[in-house]
Amino acid sequence: MGSKVLKLYYMMHQRRNPQNKTREFWGNFGDELSPLVVTYITGCDVRWARVRDADLMAIGSILDSLALTKVAHFWTRYRWRKTPLAIWGTGVMRETFDYPANNLNVLALRGPMSAARLHLKETNVYGDPGLFASELVPHSPKIYQLGIVPHISERTYEVTKQFCAAFPKALIIDVRKHPIDVLKDISSCDMILSSSLHGLVVADSYSIPNAWVRFSDKVLGSGFKFQDYAAGIGRPHMIAHRPEDIPKEPHALENFLKAPYQAIDVAGSNRALAQKLKNWM
Predict the structure, then answer these.
(1) Contact between residue 103 and residue 84 where contact means Cβ atoms under 8 Å apart
(2) Which CATH architecture best describes the domain 132-263?
(3) Residue 45 pLDDT > 50
(4) Nearest-10 crossing angle of helices 224-232, 197-205
């Protein structure tokens, strides 16, 4: 008898291949962590589904899909679904999002700011399921002094390469790689600079000192998702650093990152998240 099929919505982009005219689907490692984590916890046969057909939403700033997608809005808001769409560790991208959680089964959210945008006064469990990274892939041997995780929209920016010139043992991590390989790359670094939220979440999972850096203005949103994540794990306001503010000398960078870094209770957060999902199953 096969595993139970669980239909999961997560962000998948599509583009047309100009050579063979076929459609290609791709995500980045934060999006593609979602099915890996859900499979790890539930043991289900997890399959991608459209919002209107899905059982569950998990990793990603994808709650906006409920308002941006007319079909999704129709199916969820007006109760054409037989069972409510379950929300687990998901978050909102923009502070302008406004969607009362009618006919949604909210198991957990990324943070309290997302809860407010859903008109929820209280949610018992907050946290990003990307924190399960260190359970999916054990800690790798440390190879690099510094890992740089540019958002997928910034992967070609020259400014990220400046850090490689300053740090001989630096690695620019390509978020288009298989998510397991990205986790291995991040865990092999002593420190992480990232413009990708999940670069920071995964670094936290491995207790690696990290900082949010704005390499450009191309990343969508005003930083809402970063502050939401920080609030969800009990951290104060998260600072968005500009590249020019980051020390380019190894010892200075170590002091810059490690002195203020607050490790979080990853095991406790993950236990609470996992229990919510298992109870729903």
Answers:
(1) yes
(2) 3-Layer(aba) Sandwich (3.40)
(3) yes
(4) 20
CA distance 92 to 209: 25
Phi and psi at residue 108, to the nearest 5°: -165, 155
The CA distance from 142 to 186, in Å, is 10
Say whether pLDDT at 183 is over 90.
yes
Global pTM reads 0.89
Amino acid at 61: S
The Cα 39–Cα 32 span in angstroms is 12
Q: Which of 114, 76, 67, 110 is nearest to 233 (CA)?
A: 110
- Report DSSP letters for 78-98, one per residue: TT-SSSPEEEEEE--S-TT--
Q: What is the pLDDT of residue 165?
A: 81
Note whether 240 and 212 are within 8 A (CB): yes
Tokens of 108: 């957990």
Q: What is the pLDDT of residues 55-67, one digit of tens each?
A: 999 999 988 877 6
Q: Check: CB of residue 213 under 8 Å from CB of residue 94.
A: no
For residue 261, which of 241, 243, 242, 236 has the smallest C-alpha distance? 236
Residue type, 113: M
Q: Which of 162, 164, 178, 255 is nearest to 211 (CA)?
A: 255
Q: What is the mean pLDDT of the chain?
A: 85
Q: Output 62 or 133, whichever has higher pLDDT.
A: 133
- What is the residue extent of each domain of the chain? 5-131+269-280, 132-263
Please name which of 31, 33, 30 lies closest in space to residue 10, comparing C-alpha atoms.
31
